[in-house]
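Work Package 3 (structural annotation) set out to generate three-dimensional models for the target panel prioritized at the project kickoff. During this period the team completed the workflow that converts sequence records into discrete structure tokens, so that structures can be stored uniformly alongside our sequence database. As a representative example, we reproduce one entry of 169 residues exactly as it appears in the project archive.
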Amino acid sequence: MATIILVTGGTRSGKSVRAETIALSHSGPPVYIATAEFIDSAMHARIDIHRNRRGDAWDVREAPLDLTQALRETDGRGARLVDCLTIWLSNMMHHGRDWPHAIDELCTELRQQKSPVILVSSEVGLGILPDNALARDFCDAAGTLNQKIAGIADVVEFVVAGLPLKLKP
């Protein structure tokens, strides 16, 4: 069985940099599974920041919706970095997909992987309760997602100000 590592934290906490460092510490060529879609100029700028920082050493796969398929297709090729689960969840909700079922499928697939998987996910539940139903629904869904992934992960780190705090094991 592969090692499953969850790296979580707030926006711009340094979680992606930490996850990239972990992925590069494994042998074999790293695989970057990107979940973001080019929906606006702000997202395009964020994607560019990540691409420029990583450089060309990574095999990049785009999986805004079918994350389990991307994991199946890349298993055995080295460590995979999924960045990020909360963007994937947002995509699932936006496209009207059955996200609770997709989370369960993802957990099942992660348990079957042979190569390491490093997953980045934002911790969105540390602030005040949002004032609109859509934001509350997303916070609840993200909390469910993070709890389920943390439950099956071998290692869980919380990143604050670029510093990782090991929560599990």
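The chain is about 45% helix and 20% strand.
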